User: What shape does this take?
Amino acid sequence: MAQTAMEADAARAVDRDRLWRRLMEMGRIGGFTTEDGHEGVNRPCLSPLDREARRLLIGWARAAGLAVAIDPAANLFLRLEGRDASAAPVLTGSHMDSQPQGGRFDGSYGVLAGLEAVEAIAASGIRPQRPIEVVAWTNEEGGRFAPGCTGSMSFTKAEPMAKFDDIRDAEGIRYADALAEQLALESDLPSRPLGYIPHAYVEAHIEQGPRLEAEGMDIGVVTGIQGCRWFTVTVEGRTDHAGTTPLRLRKDAVQDAIRAIQALNALMHDPDDVLRFTVGSFRVKPDTSNSVAREVVFTIDFRHPDAKVLRDRGDAVAETVARAMTTCTARVYERFHAAPADFAPLVPDVVELAARNLGLAALRMPSGAFHDAQFLARLCPTGMIFIPCRGGVSHHPAEYATPEACANGARVLARVLCDLAAV
Ligand code: HGY
Ligand code: MN
Ligand code: MN
Assistant: This one.
């Protein structure tokens, strides 16, 4: 049978309702309903909720005849065997962990669309030349243990896994201990060594931005991912009585932290609004209204598609903070640095052709959000398939994509996987 005919069969075999049922069922693990009726998800990585979600996924995968395995970073693999079992697999997938105020689609969609596409390929009677694997990466979000992408950075050797050992969550639990617990509780799963070179990697994901919806497009053909740098700034002063201490004698960590953020706003100013600069966490100690703050810890999330801007402005963060101090001292620690990733044309071209063969409107575009694909791109031909999400909203309980949009992405993915695994 001709390749394109097989791809068409695989896309037709995608079961829209089954994918939607699974997305909704998965969304109930760590799910919550907001006062205004949105269905959010709070599913931290390496948690009992994460393990519950993985067991649900494993059950579906095994029922579909896929082989399950886990690596030392707790990355979870679901494998459809190929005619040549020794060939480098085509890899697809995403992540199962969410932001604390996350949605039902960020990450989960890419894993479940991958499972759906692989099941559709098998159901259409295609035995791909290469194995196809669906992966659920550990800790993409970095919500519990910062930074994110520790699973894919370990898999791709972007960083040694041991580098993450002593990261602590808000309760003081070490990443290494949470990982060891996950591996122990999933010790019934076949284990495999850390890392291999995939033949190619393709990840389906909601856009997490407004363009596809605004431009009436069905599919985003992702061409690359902007760079991202995360910093933690610690401003140290001295706590004093709020009623008796004259301002001229204070070492007020909040006031100097505000000065530092104002100076960083100036550093990061971009009249073209391409640069992204976010202070998302701002923690004060002792955090009482009648004591002068002795410490502020705030985070910086800085992103830009241009490597030079990312380097020049990012490298100026520490001195900008230091210059802003009047009575306090400051420490700046960089905890994440993902260079901009430009995808080689191979996979984006296959994605665009698959969308066109399905009669879907496709738009070539970069990703503003980071993804595990950013690290896979250093290892093998990589691409992403975006689907529209309502209002571009993400990292929010109101995150939503329609059943048809989800199925479209899985249909494109099924064709792409067939194509990439054929030789
Ligand atoms: O933060 C990000 O860009 C991703 O959604 N975790
Ligand atoms: Mn994501
Ligand atoms: Mn996310």
In short: The first strand starts at residue 31 and ends at 33. Residues 403-420 form the longest helix (18 residues). The chain has two domains: 3-226+340-420, 227-338. The mean pLDDT is 97.
